[in-house]
Amino acid sequence: MQARNLSGLLGKLKNVLAPVCLALLACSFPASAQSLGSAGTVEGTITDASGAVIAGATATIVNRITGYQQTATTDSVGSFRLNNVPPNPYHLEVSAPGFATLQQDIVVRSAVPLTLQPSLQVAGGRTTVVVEAAGADVLENVPYAHNDMDRAVYSKLPTLGAGSGLSDAIIFASPGVVADSNGLFHPLGDHAQTTISIDGQPISDQQSKQFSTQLPLNAIQSMELITGAPAAEFGDKTSLVVNAVTRSGLGQSKPHGSFAAQYGSFGTAAEEFTLGAGSPKFGNFLAANALRSGRFLDTPEFRPLHARGNNQTIFDRIDYQPTGKNVFHLNLFAARNWFQTPNTFEQQFADQDQRQMVRSFNIAPGYQRTISPAVLLTITPFLRQDRVTYYSSRDPFSDTPITIGQSRRLRSLGFRADIAYVRGIHNLKFGGHFTNTGLSEDFHLGVTDPAFNAVCLDQGGDPVTKPTLLDPDDCADAGFKGNPDLQPGLIPFDLTRGGALFGFRGRADINQGGFFVQDQITLHSLTIHAGLRVDHYSGLSTDTLAQPRVGASYQIKPTGTVLRASYSRTLETPYNESLILSSSTGSGGLAQNTFGAFGAQPMRPGHRNQYNAGIQQALGKVLLVDADYFWKFTDNAYDFSALLNTPMVFPISWRKSKIDGVSLRLSTPNLRGFQAYTTMGHTRSRYFGPEVGGLIFNSPLDTSVFRIDHDQAFQQTTHVRYQRPKNGAWFAFTWRYDSGLVAGAVDSLEAALGLTAAQQAAIGFFCGGQRASLSQGITQCASSNFGATRLRIPAPGTADPDHNPPRVAPRHLFDLGAGTDNLFRRSEGTRVTLKFTVLNVTDKIALYNFLSTFSGTHFVAPRTYQAEVGVVF
Fold first, then answer.
1. Inter-residue contact 355 to 59 (CB < 8 Å)
2. Confidence tier at 37 by pLDDT (50, 70, 90)
């Protein structure tokens, strides 16, 4: 079944890409060895003291924090080249038989090739040097907060959810990034304000599995996770910038790859395959993956109900560089998510069968030309599309409390071009971009539960389901009273009262263009980063903003300290997913009073001022401390509104937001096989009404200041790993603590008593010695000893949406992993790998969120076992 799915995707991709590939081959020019996107190239010629070239010498670069390492051997003329090098500082070691080993520190911060001329001295005998990281080796004198991940790190991290490996790696590694359900996360107090740059192609649309299909982790070589002070080259959504470099087959004369088969809890099975091969002029890297699981999305009940899903991805990177000054690249990606919408117990009993399919493809050719040794031109066109189809149950009345369906498409066509110039103290880059995003949305909705939007209530306050009551003015004559929470606009679409399905169809084009210029100036121990970005946004609304970005860092070498500070002005663009419908709703409903609106208002881009200040401190050779304070003020701040408990969400905006917090990361280099890091974050996320947009039935339309569900007082992740020798047995331990997101639906005892029995059981509600169960709720509570085990309800009279909101209860989650990268201890050739992981070791029952307007209700995964066997060749 998986093979047929992958075959179908390949066939479709071939038909789409054939004209592009032919065009690229037709315009091939001689090329040299630049690297794609933000990756760099390290090259040079190794000579002896007399100037004679040394053939067969080796040049190795290593980063002791990320674990990245690459080695090249000189050819007959003493030349070496290291391609696709992630932006980072490195320790370089050059050696040859009969010569003393040369060591030096280098920094890769540009795609312009870094050219070196190492000269080796003759040694009396063979010299062996073991490189250990010193304090200066791990410091980075840059004015922005970030951390780096390589495959050596994230290949040993646990995967929290099916099809969301990229999100999980980001959550585990980044301070101040708060985990939410279904692979979503909140970077530094914002909802999904993330740009992912894949080999230079910017993607600012949602990459969670319910919106799109993520690039698989086995296609990525490294990631730079920028959480502060975005450079001028990054726009749109900048609370977190993921600067990713994919894997390449360039220069790999011997084919290499892997195959792994996995099986685990909930019937989860997966297959992963990679293959890389090439030559000095050509490279190809392929990653193909398939997965199916009985718990694809996080569920609204601890026990998964109607939660099956599958995911298939295929990624191919092609590099071509004949001799000369030009180089071509091509990234191809196609994927599909097909999953059931998890049910509550009530929905399962009603036989609800809602499903969703997400199909994505991405085509990103690239061209680079070395104009001179100091100047590099890069052009990256791209075509990307996500097509989402949401299916209601075959019988509309099997859906409760509403039946919904959607078919939408998001297609982005654009390019990015820049020129990089490196000379002396300057690292200059300037360029421009343009993107046309075509949006297509079809949506329908109907109410199927007569109690969901009851027109009248009986004298006890219970809904009256009589289908002939359509006007609240008629309630008194029938012996009832009007429902104060009635949404009059929904009555025409109430199928239980003779209504018809509501239908919506919208089409729109979003155009965005601009330019940027930036320069990183290095003056000994002082680094200054200054830039200007100008964006013009033209869609359902229009805006233009000049965005200055400036920052500085200073390294105090005797103490191993880097101090930094920065200011950023950014244009925050609206989310594209379901944007047309949300922009047609005004405040809480469609125009012309369909859902109670008083006028339509398209969402406008937001304007943000952001300040960062931080410190990086090396403690000898064993620990690096990186702390950052951030403060963000945004006019017109964005979020999403969930449609009840479905994966269908609609973008909304609030008048403004004030977000501040502290992030901290402690990390060690590789110390004889032992490596560890701890990330910590504290975020205050305050939003101010009124709200605009969305399809909202259960939240206020105009709210003053409140803590949004991105707000979390404290979170930390600790990851410890030991592996020795390099490909030998390993052990990993991960501990994550979350103090609990805001959950505003239950702010009092009265609100808890108004929940259904199943909802009370979900939060672990109790009154004295009585505990709610699925079949028996609590309707009265005279005891002062009340509360919930999975939710923190404020004490009577103390609830405040800003200073004391209700929250999800704190939770500790522990994960264990063990395995080996060389089961039979082979010194060369094919290796057999084993891996066993246990997630949520203590089987903690905990919530991500509860009845959230922005997310719904979701439990964390129960104790989960995963086993993997693989072959590496």
1. no
2. low
